[in-house]
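If your schedule permits, I should be very grateful for your opinion on a structural question. I have a record of one protein: its chain in single-letter code and its fold written as discrete structure tokens. Would you kindly read the sequence against the tokens and tell me how you understand this chain to fold? Thank you for your consideration; the sequence and its tokens are set out here.


***
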Amino acid sequence: MRVESPQIPYNFADLEPAMSRDTLVFHFLHHQRDCFDRMLSMVRGTELETLPLAELVCACERDPERRVLFRHAAEVWNHDLYWRSMRPGGGGAPHGLIGEHIAARFGTYERFARELKEAAASVFGSGWLWLVQSADDLEIVLTRDADSPLLRGDTALLALDLWEHAYYLEHQNRRGAYVDTFLEELVNWDFANRVLAGLAAGAEARPVHSRAVSEVHRGQLGAL
């Protein structure tokens, strides 16, 4: 199996007090790890076993008979992005390349933050919020359940889990408070900058289009 066991890139208590150790332990062990174990059991001994995770997600999404496997694989991939979208001592206004891109696309960080919060509030039920670099521009994207911008050929710069289990222990049903905390205390702009730098490096060799973006994205988690 070419998919590595999921890991969180910091200790479980490192995001406190913004996000508790209990939340991370519960979220990782009872959601992502459970999805990984179920995915592993479904691909073991099949032709899918040799695929990298991103390719597995895309292959299963195209096959209506593998929708259950798709949901497990996509949740593993989505969570890998989510953990890297946060860091100890994170939050605040963006800097570097991502700051420049946000200013060019939204005008001000305040407008970006407002649109991101409005998008998060608009999701009824479970889903994900993403900041992506599409073939054309920076976008705030919403997906339902386990769906992912990977399927559109976009490159995710940040991921925010909107399933209630991601924030209930800290914020109960107050999703808005969770999004505020993410922006003010957790968001990892350095990760977004590294992904953008990788895209810029690739653009020097070839035009950036949806396939090129997807190729960069398939390798980004293993490289960072």
About this structure: Confidence is low (pLDDT under 50) at residues 205-224.
